[in-house]
Amino acid sequence: MRQPALPEPCPEWLASLDDAALKRTLLDRVEAAWQLCRKYHPALPRPKVWCDLRGKCAGQAHYGRGGLRFNPVLYRENRHAYLVEVVPHEMAHWLVRHLRDGRRARPHGHEWRTVMERLFGLPPRVTHAFDTRRASPMPYRYHCGCQDHYFTARRHALARRGRRYRCLTCAQTLVYQSFVDPESRYN
Ligand SMILES: [Zn+2]
Ligand SMILES: [Zn+2]
């Protein structure tokens, strides 16, 4: 595996940014990723950028709108990984789509993986790991008075049948909140 082609952002600096500075940093990163792609494909159009994605979707290349969509909440909560992985991930889709025969390439197929590995120097990951609990075998979220707890399917079944679990910190009974989708994929 090669070294990442884009510069490593400083996590402490990222942690200090407000929302406006975060947005500028994202736009700078998109610009840097685009410039890198243009070395390989000089005619690549500059994508527009929107920060309007919600939910578990990290990013999306939207060819109809002519640009890339990003998720401001996942970005704010996972600044470093977001800049390092999501921006190249979506820019790689953008590049592949604009190659000859790009419309026929599979979304995370050979062409996309090649761009991720050879151009960006990154592992071609299809799922993101922003909240590791999403991908864990404990997808059932419970709450007490002080924090979230995550249950396995087995423990969840016992709780549904009436067994009570208490938080060791606040001693409140845990209450079921929701199933956390373990398939948190990129687009
Ligand atoms: Zn608690
Ligand atoms: Zn993708």
From TrEMBL:
Residue span(s) of domain SprT-like: 24-177
GO biological process: response to stress
Pfam families: SprT-like
Domain of life: Bacteria
Transmembrane segments: none
Cited InterPro entries: SprT-like_domain
Name assigned to this protein: Metallopeptidase
Native organism: Billgrantia pellis
